[in-house]
Design a protein that fits this description.
The protein is α+β, with helices and mostly antiparallel strands. It folds into three domains: about 5-50 and about 165-240 and about 345-390, FAD/NAD(P)-binding domain; about 95-160 and about 245-345, D-Amino Acid Oxidase, subunit A, domain 2 (D-Amino Acid Oxidase, Chain A, domain 2); about 410-530, Orthogonal Bundle (Helicase, Ruva Protein, domain 3), CATH 1.10.8.870. It is built from 16 helices and 18 strands. Strands 3, 4, 5, 6, 11, 12, 13, 14, 15 and 16 form a ten-stranded mixed beta sheet that branches. Strands 1, 2, 7, 8, 9, 10, 17 and 18 form an eight-stranded mixed beta sheet that branches. Helix 12 (about 440-450) crosses helix 13. The model has no long low-confidence stretch (mean pLDDT about 95).
Length: about 550
């Protein structure tokens, strides 16, 4: 009962484009290409959004700190794309206020901060978010009473955007691709590239749910594997030089202690990081260090956790930072530049046509930011069109994502009577619209048809059983972890969603026909994933 693509069926087709990688960039490419009329297949070795996408700071922004690197084009692109995402995904991407305090000894003094704010506004002309305003020390303390007063010289208030669930941004891009005919399969790993002479003509893909392998054939293959992109490229040319410089970033979840998103300047190394309100808690991050090991094994380490705690406590001395209840660790896929410090490496992307290296039929995408995923995807599909001899206009900047066809407040007003009629309260409506946008109507329809599905998954929380069924039937979720961590945020609560695990796994077992042993194994796998969320946290 899943809308996951069937690899056996996919193996009987021939596609214009095979995308390897189901992070935000791969899903963006699949959406764009399918909307332009190409026959598209996408395979992802884990779940959609499993890797770097789900381990970000959950921001859609231009990047203030890139101004001091004089990368104005990157900032302008980010701000331009921010506006597009606010328009096409208003249920997932929203503007939030940011406060940047300035202390004696900070690298960003008041004059630099003022100049940066003015330039940031100029680079985002035509924006829908408010412009900045400078603050006196007293105004900063009024906005954030818990902030340290000693050495405070003032600050700035400005607006950027947050994507509370980048994993869902992935899913909605994939669903849009499916709507336009694409076949999408998660838990499907490209083991080797298929060749016709020197030309790449698809990939041999292992279905990690069944163990079977299937040849998926395509005229062009796009490598959008993020931090694994070098490995995929080496499937075509084992001697290929690495393009990526991988850097590691961790985040902490702690009890809420701010009213605004806070831009922090680390005193130890001058790095800029954030403390951002998220789902009733505060998300702190990120770090930026070179990482040479496998992206599959990345975890937060105690010294990295201590670094963020200590630097945050310097500015918010009374925050409850002794209770870190979750960590995440991810790997950035940056274009290699060994002469620069980690945080100074450009976030620009590179698109490589391997035909120049004697391997036609393969394109690789390296680098880039989540904020710019749509523009990078458009550039990649433009190149695909030129190679295939097809002129196809891009529509991804104007066509809403599946849940984004109207403002969330309109959706809430429209669906509230239906929800109330079946016993759901305002908090539950708010929750459903915040996750699904207009697609919340699909979840409500399941609950209307079956009274049992109106039940809460856990007491005191808004999620209902209908969401599990919807995730399985309509969003390619095939494991409890998919639902708890990447279709909802249940797994990021202080208990890591373990109180919901039994109920969720039971519903998956019913929907997918699992044996009792299979259900127990899936529970064990989720418990291991929950343990991962405690990595680096010292007792």
């Amino acid at each position: 009962m899943s809308n996951r693509g069937d690899l056996e069926t996919m193996a009987r087709e021939e596609y214009d484009l095979l995308v390897i990688g189901g992070g935000i960039l791969g899903c963006g490419v699949a959406r764009d290409a399918a909307m332009r009329g190409l026959r598209v297949a996408l395979v992802e070795k884990e779940d959609l959004g499993y890797g770097t996408t789900s381990r970000s700071t959950r921001l859609i922004h231009g990047g203030l700190r890139y101004l001091e690197l004089f990368d104005f084009a990157l900032v302008h692109e980010g701000l331009h794309e921010r506006q597009h995402l606010l328009q096409i995904a208003p249920h997932l991407v929203r503007g939030i206020p940011f406060l940047t305090p300035s202390y004696v000894g900070d690298r960003w003094g008041p004059l630099f901060l003022r100049a940066g704010m003015v330039l940031y506004d100029l680079l985002s002309l035509g924006k829908s978010l408010p412009s900045h305003r400078m603050l006196t020390p007293a105004q900063v303390r009024e906005l954030e009473p818990g902030i340290r007063s000693e050495g405070l010289r003032g600050g700035a208030l400005y607006y950027d955007a947050q994507v509370a669930y980048p994993e869902r941004l992935c899913v909605e891009n994939a669903l849009c691709a499916q709507k336009h005919g694409a076949q999408i399969a998660n838990y499907a790993e490209a083991r080797q590239l298929l060749r016709d002479g020197q030309r790449v003509c698809g990939a041999l893909v292992e279905d990690r749910l069944t163990g079977a392998t299937h040849p998926i054939r395509a005229r062009l293959t796009v490598n959008a594997a993020g931090p694994w992109a070098d490995e995929v490229a080496r499937l075509a040319s084992p001697e290929a030089r690495p393009v990526l410089r991988r850097t590691k970033g961790i985040h902490l979840l702690v009890p809420s202690f701010t009213r605004h998103a806070i831009v922090l300047q680390a005193r130890r190394d001058g790095r800029i990081f954030f403390a951002v309100p998220w789902e009733g808690n505060t998300l702190i991050g990120t770090t930026d260090t070179d990482y040479e090991e496998s992206p599959d094994q990345v975890t937060a380490l105690p010294d990295e956790v201590r670094y963020l705690v200590e630097e945050t406590r310097r500015v918010f001395p009374h925050a409850d930072l002794g209770h870190v209840f979750a960590t995440t660790a991810g790997v950035r896929a940056l274009v290699r530049s060994r002469k620069k410090a980690e945080s100074d490496v450009s976030r620009r992307h590179r698109i490589v046509d391997h035909a120049r290296e004697g391997t036609p039929g393969l394109l690789s995408l390296f680098g880039g930011k989540i904020t710019a995923y749509r523009a990078i995807a458009a550039e990649a599909v433009d190149l695909v069109g030129r190679i295939l001899g097809r002129r196809m206009p891009c529509r991804t900047a104007v066509e809403p994502l599946p849940g984004g066809s109207e403002a969330p407040e309109v959706t809430r007003c429209r669906l509230a009577p239906r929800a109330s009629a079946i016993g759901l309260d305002e908090e539950q409506v708010e929750h459903l619209v915040g996750l699904y946008g207009t697609r919340a109507a699909e979840v409500l329809a399941l609950a209307e048809a079956d009274a049992r599905l109106r039940e809460r998954i856990t007491p005191g929380h808004p999620e209902i059983l209908a969401q599990i069924h919807h995730a399985c039937r309509a969003e390619m979720a095939v494991t409890p972890a998919d639902f708890l961590l990447r279709r909802t945020g249940i797994g990021f609560r202080p208990d890591h969603g373990l109180d919901a695990l039994e109920r969720v796994s039971r519903e998956f077992a019913l929907l997918l026909g699992w044996s009792a042993e299979h259900e127990r194994e899936e529970c064990r796998r989720y418990e291991a994933a929950a343990d991962y969320l405690s990595a680096g946290i010292e007792p």
